[in-house]
Write a structure and sequence with these properties.
Length: 179
């Protein structure tokens, strides 16, 4: 799945398949400017920062079990969000600090470091990299991912795929080659 935020006409947090199909709103009320998003892949939770409401909130993948982690002026200028173990990590664009926030109750908020111009944060950890033995976008014997001439996007599961073309090309009738 692909998770993303939008604060155009109606602010929301959404999810869809990697090919853009099955688009679903998971949060569409009491939300104004969701700007950063992070996933707990193991427990299937979505965390986001709303910079207008000065809050960090969480829901499960279906949009249930919503609650506020932390709210207030101390998180006014957050950008970027990452989850690792018991904490959320984020960058504060106002004072250029990296913050650590207890993700279960919002306590134990601590500035860890200061970095010039930090706008995003990521945590890379082997346990969060799920291993998939076979998937629909694996390279075929001709060097084409999933048999697609340009791009292969996973669909509703890792066993299904959709081929797409780069800008200026159209997908052929075979559903794989771009012209």
């Amino acid at each position: 799945k692909l998770f993303f935020t939008d604060y155009g006409n109606a602010a929301k947090v959404e999810r869809c398949d990697m090919d853009g199909m099955n688009r679903t709103w998971i949060v569409d009320s009491k939300i104004e400017q969701p700007t950063a998003l992070a996933l707990d892949l193991i427990n299937k939770y979505v965390y986001w920062v709303d910079i207008y409401l000065d809050s960090v909130e969480v829901v499960d993948y279906q949009g249930r079990k919503r609650h506020t982690i932390i709210k207030g002026r101390q998180i006014r200028h957050l950008c970027g969000l990452a989850v690792f173990e018991n904490y959320l990590y984020t960058a504060n664009s106002d004072d250029l600090s990296i913050l650590r926030i207890n993700r279960y109750n919002g306590t134990d908020t601590q500035a860890l470091a200061r970095l010039d111009n930090a706008k995003e944060i990521r945590v890379y950890q082997k346990r969060t990299q799920t291993a998939v033995r076979n998937h629909a976008c694996e390279v075929d014997p001709y060097g084409m991912p999933g048999g697609c001439s340009h791009m292969c996007l996973l669909s509703s599961s890792y066993k299904a795929r959709t081929c797409r073309c780069r800008t200026g090309f159209i997908l052929g009738s075979d559903g794989r080659s771009c012209k």
